[in-house]
Amino acid sequence: MVAPKYKRVLLKLSGEALMGDQQYGIGPEMLIGVAEEVKAIVDLGVQTALVVGGGNIFRGVAASSKGMDRASADYIGMLATVMNSLALQGALEKIGVPTRVLSAISIHQVAEPYIRRRAIRHLEKGRIVIFAAGTGNPYFTTDTAAVLRAAEIHAEVFLKATKVDGVYDMDPVRNKEAKFIEAIDYMSVLEQRLHVMDSTAVSLAMENSLEMVVFNLKVKGNIRRVVCGDRSIGTRIFESRPASGNR
């Protein structure tokens, strides 16, 4: 068995990752599949934290663009992440993985309040921690919240699971000429305006020297491969400029 490269990781999942083949909501089969993929790295002894978006239920930015107050829209989006977090917790515990949901907004009946030291203690005890409700403040994306939590718990790597193989120099869905990027530094991501995360999240990751891997969630076993150090998967983003280029 290949030993894991990292001891503590934070995995960011988009809300859309839970939809499966549906147009919205949570796909039961996809939910189970994600839970099993996460369990595979927990079984390696990796301390695992998760952040799940809420775009499969409600997207605050889209709602605000249609006239809804941005702060109100973002709070609704936070509640959507809580729903996804509870669903994922249920799927994980159903396959025997102890899980705790820590929410940045107070919902004591269904989730623990977010306390950094408590989160770290849960991780040390082998429990998965799911951070819900973003930062607890409007105007911040779940990507920014995920980078913030990764820095707070001293995660060794930030894993961003997406629908594509990694980072490209342009949208690979719309442009077949798009070139895959194996490794890139954060400043280049900002300068080239690559759509990895919003600029606030990228800047925060850069300031905290947080290693990031962007990879395809849909390929079974990818999470485990990345955690075990397989460099053939995804795009790696670093603080300083890497020597390698495109492929």
Can you describe what's shown?
With 247 residues, the protein is an alpha/beta fold. It has a single domain (8-238), classed as Carbamate kinase, CATH 3.40.1160. 35% of the residues lie in helices and 19% in strands. The strands form 2 sheets. Strands 4-3-5-2-1-6-10-11-9 form a 9-stranded mixed β-sheet, sandwiched between helices. Helix 5 (142-152) runs parallel beside helix 7. It is globular and about 50 Å long.
Summarize the entry for a quick read:
By secondary structure, the protein is α/β, with parallel strands linked by helices.
Summary keywords:
single chain, 247 residues, alpha/beta, Carbamate kinase, 9-stranded mixed sheet, two-stranded antiparallel sheet, 11 strands, 19% strand, globular
How many E-type strands? 11
Gross morphology is globular
* Arithmetic mean pLDDT: 92
The largest sheet is: 9 strands, mixed
Distance between the termini: 29 Å
**Domain tally:** 1
Helical fraction equals 25-40%
CATH class wording: Alpha Beta
The side-by-side strand order for the widest beta sheet comes to 4-3-5-2-1-6-10-11-9
H/E element sequence = EHEHHEEHEHEEEEHHEHE
CATH topology: Carbamate kinase
What is the beta-strand fraction? Answer: 15-25%
Taking all Cα atoms into account, the compactness measure Rg is 17 Å
Give the full name of the CATH homologous superfamily: Acetylglutamate kinase-like
Sequence stretches where pLDDT stays below 50 over 5 or more residues: none
**With helices defined by DSSP (H or I, 4 residues minimum), what is the helix count?**
8
- Tell me the structural class: alpha/beta
For the record, the CATH architecture stands as 3-Layer(aba) Sandwich
